[in-house]
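Hi P.,

Sorry for the delay on this. The queue was packed all week, but I finally got your sequence through. Input first:
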Amino acid sequence: MAVWKRAALPAAFGERHAATLPGLLGIEMVEVGADFARATMPVDERHIQPAGILHGGASVVLAETLGSYCGVLALEEGWTVVGLEVNANHLAPVFKGDRVEAVCRPLQLGRSVQVWQIEIRRGDGRLTCVSRLTTVVRETRGA
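Then the structure:
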């Protein structure tokens, strides 16, 4: 059963985020299914910490970006979401040169609060990060 109330256009995601942090980090929306969305991010010099592995903060940016995007898609026009809390458990390293893929699914789609789970996997399929994003639903300003 589809959870989306707005059309999901991966190309529009790229255009909207081109000059923002997700665009600067190379986050790309690749698929929106009936109850999930999938995005990817390269792991290059923009994303690593001094030990040469993916910085945990980059994983959190990917998770919050994807969860927030899904939050908006799950709402009627005139409504948006803002992040209330995000957490992340980093389970395995990702090395420079790899690419990560994130899949986001809803855990709760309430009238005032949404909860999203995001799993991030590295190129070999190993789970590297599990994140949960809680958002607050707000009426869009000026609507």
